[in-house]
Amino acid sequence: MNKLHDKVALVTGAASGIGAGIARRFIADGATVMLTDINDAAGAALADELGPRAAYLPLDVREEGAWQAAIAEVERRWGRLDILVNNAGISFPAHIEAATLEDWRKHMRVHGEGTFLGCKYGVASMKKRGGGAIVNVSSVESIRPGPLFVAYGAAKAAQDAVTKTVALHCGEQGYKIRCNSVHPAATRTPNLQQYLDASADPARLEAIYAGMQPLNRIAEVAEIAAAVAFLASDEASFMTGHQMYVDGGVLAKPYPAGEGA
To answer: Dihedral, CA atoms, 150, 213, 224, 141, nearest 10 degrees?
Structure first.
């Protein structure tokens, strides 16, 4: 479990959910990790729990100056940045008739602009040391968006485009920086739990979520974190521009009759 030994990582949205799971997995795999988030209390508490190879730094991924400061702090503390995980995200459902322009802009700023800024300053740091790995946590909604996620699906698709263009550019420039994305389906996170808790019949709603996956269950955070850890490691040294589906088979299913292209 030391495949990330001596690597320095920065993980956004690390205070809870998938981001916290990624931070835990990275520490278990031997990395030193800068956890970042806008939930300072939870982020700092988790960093304390994870021990001396973890630290916490506030980071609003929408702000360019915050990104510059965060990367500079990682370099100051540990001398370099080897791994960047763009995981911070928001999601609230709305179809095209209900979604507002503000909904659209909020999603685009976090997923689109946040990933753009992270990759921009991550690449600038990594190329100084001769390589690195970027993993962007996307979603199945970027590939097959549902009608209730017009803003979220589009923002995740923008994130995917950034992933591929960064992978191509870094390859063409010989930077030895890989950039890949992970695409989870429904995952047992605090955000999903809120939907379940608000339901009149949480068990029935969970069964509906589980039934969307051919494996007939909701993913666990550790399963998503394992995929991220693999792509961040040297074991994935010939993978870049790749979309890894951790979706229980969702994207392998054909569209129902009358749907799709």
So the answer is: -10
